[in-house]
Amino acid sequence: MRNERGLKGIVFLAALALAGPVAAQGIEQTxxxxxxxxxxxxxxxxxxxxxxNASGAPGHEYWQQKAxxxxxxxxxxxxxxxxxxxxxxxxxxxxxxxxxxxLQLDQNIFRRDSIAxxxxxxxxxxxxxxxxxxxxxxxxxxxxSMADNDYGYEIGAVTLxxxxxxxxxxxxxxxxxxxxxxxxxxxxxxxxxxxxFQITDQKAIGGRAGYEHFPEDPRSGGNDIFEIAQxxxxxxxxxDYEGWHNKEFLGSGEFTLxxxxxxxxxxxxxxxxxxxxxxxxxxxEVLTAAQRxxxxxxxxxxxxxxxxxxxxxxxxxxxxxxxxxxxRFAAQNVRDFSWxxxxxxxxxxxxxxxxxxxxxxxxxxxxxxxxxxxxxxKYSTPAVxxxxxxxxxFSFDYPYPVAQSVNGPVGGMEYPMITFNxxxxxxxxxxxxxxxxxxxxxxxxxxxxxxGHIYFPMTVNSDERQWTWMDEGLNSFLxxxxxxxxxxxxxxxxxxxxxxxxxxxxxxxxxxxxxxDSVVNLGPNAYSxxxxxxxxxxxxxxxxxxxxxxxxxxxxxxxxxxPTPADFFRTMEEASGTDLDWFWRGWFYTTDHVDISVxxxxxxxxxxxxxxxxxPRRRQELADEPERVGVRLNREQQVPIxxxxxxxxxxxxxxxxxxxxxxxxxxxxxxxxxxxxxxxRTAFERAVREDAxxxxxxxxxxxxxxxxxxxxxxxxxxxxxxxVIPAEIWRRNPHEVSKLLVFPKGQILEQVVVDPDWETAxxxxxxxxxxxxxIPSRIEAYQAEQSGSRVSRxxxxxxxx
Length: 801
Known about the structure:
The protein is of the alpha+beta class. The protein has 22 helices and 32 strands. One of its GO terms (molecular function) is aminopeptidase activity. It holds the Pfam family Peptidase_M1.
């Protein structure tokens, strides 16, 4: 049996360690077993200050750094190698003098000696029995690719603007640059880095970028799609709450970066089409006149317009490059930059209108190979536009001029203005391309999710390395909202309360506030559980109007800024006008789950104290009880009854039972009424006159996570009512509570169901019914499987064949 008390203590201490500065002394219960689920989070959350105030808004001295980039990069398609040179202008807006700068070298995660590679845990099971350990062919392929290639950065010159070399130290996926003198507050520095790296085979190595090879293409050697991300040394964030965010990149924890402006030149084979963060600066040099005309037409089109047609893409696949072209892009106020390049790309576009916004026309665009087929032609760009409409309603107008969906080897990943999305069609023998409902669901869902990330965290710049849920959880919540608004009949899953129950009752559950790289099950922990929590907060705890107002306030307060969990928690409380400390503590800091049981329901009628009314009632209640079994059997066997056969033994009590009203009973009743205060008598007589039905409902919280008690009430006349008892009913006893409900005389309660619509993630719905229901289930016949062991096989017969 799990030590619940010990586990909760460990979880709570871990939550404190993860949450930031904690008060030295906290309230502690030392006598009795009282547990306060409504204890305030003040001792857990960081103390408010001039940078982040107690309302959850940026303080009046809030600051953040700025990093601007000029980059020139060249793609060597044959060698799958990228070389580049960049100049960074870094502005220190902090109140601190900085003796050094830190940069991220994300490609170093693919080095054989990286911490991520050396600490990769073997997921199989090895034993001394005849049962072999299992190693997937994908894992073998990954190991072979790592052995055959030297991945990671080759760092060349690191120099100041005047050409002086800068001392630098590489620490795994980070690099420290030592400055000749401290960078004072308000000052800027400009420096340059030359670098190169081998692009990974994404299908072999995995990760968030890489190339995919198509050997079946007729062109000699085949064709590739390149999705390039985490590709240039980038400034590590420096913040008021952590200083340098120089945590090692281990794979799960993504990034937090500084906003800045980008001027990027990408030299690629001249038959490639490039999709990129930013606005294309030289379309006349890289696009045909017809393609430029189509792109302009798409700005006001009512449906997507093909900018690069399938015929043009297939012609590119057949022709082969004769040289190179340089595509130039510029992007303002973005925290990252990514791109994709291939001769296989088809390209469509459609303008999305945002009247009154900074970017009134947003170009929604998609890039895909012919393998994407009608699945991409029908759904990708429309899904981009749908996402912009829904997310803008919950936050702010889309802040950039383009939003793109690109098909390639990466299943789903996001960057400013561009996303990588995976599913494709299947080529059939007759040349048709078809797709399953699962692939359609995947494409629409992943486009919504990844484009949604351009809002969170690409604009609301949370720290993914520490708190994955702040972008993945918030985004999963909104993508499920957008999914149901796209088509509620599609079998969406993963984001609502009923989807997270298996995880919440498992022994692998961790608090949502666990640091990203320590999470065992990232999907349910960082995506599904926080999404479910926000749905419950919106639809059950706060209500949609106040939740939506508060959520928009959070998004707008922290647009182009760097929020922490405390900023989110405090803003949601402050803007909604709701104390939610109990909710954050239960859902985000513990591994409790929801399991509210309705244990008993009592129907009560008020005693009138009038013996001529109450005593006949009590007589009838006794008569309604089951007959004693011995008496019933005696009657059935016609056993003689003595008093019936001997009438002379009867007396007063044979005609008057214990419920006979006497004059004294009536005198006591009159005396009771006379001794009441006037207001007491008025209240009492009204209650007697109305003769209402009083019900006492007894509940227990078996999972530990307190929640509102949602009741579905069915009455004898067939009518149904819904009632929500706020979570605060548990504030004095988080384990068991009772609730008195009063209904008019004719309204007789027949059944009570807790959480009838499955909206609170209640783990055991069977104890939600009173009276208990017969549990519906299924049974399936099966045929026993034969043994697969070699001893059981007829090897003699097999050898003779």
